[in-house]
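Blinded run. Sample ID left blank on purpose so nobody reads anything into the name before looking at the predicted structure. Input follows.
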Amino acid sequence: MGSDGDAPKIDGTDAKPIFILTYITPSKLHFCEEYTYFRSGFFRHKGWRFWRYRCSCSDSKQCEAHVYIHKDDIIITDSQHNHHPLVYWKTKKAKFIQLASGSKLLLYKKYTFSRSGKTRGGGSRFTCSSSNSKKCKAHIHVNKDNVITLAAAEHTHEPLKYMDTKEGYVRINPKYPYHYNVQAEIFADD
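Blinded prediction complete.
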């Protein structure tokens, strides 16, 4: 029962194919169209087992979008997201700069990030250097080999400016105009 044949109709909907379903390790996210989902449970209906996938922003943005999947078919979908799709990048090794104080920052597309925790598999999570002062939610995950595996890098502010000194990088305070903008040269786009 429920193992052979086509998946049943539920609430009058027909099964639809998954357009893009990609498995990413170790975060276990699945892509469907342009959005990411994670498996959050299952339910049974008339002997059939369906997996429920919730939007990966269900907690942070209270998004209620979800899909129910039987084998490789989407059976039920509520794809009304209340946000734009997140952008995920897998790039070469992360670039770090050292401040005169001795601390290291991750540099990505002219913005700096400080280490804020660990991820599964021995990697690290970095949050925007302005996460407290400007309430910026941008963050980056790197694996144990310092390869960027996730970049949710939508910032709410302009990049901070730094000057390279022999002791290390020093942040330029925008209140003092006599500092020149060296960031364009130092932090050029890769």
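Unblinding after everyone has recorded impressions. The domain at 92-171 is CATH 2.20.25.240 (N-terminal domain of TfIIb).
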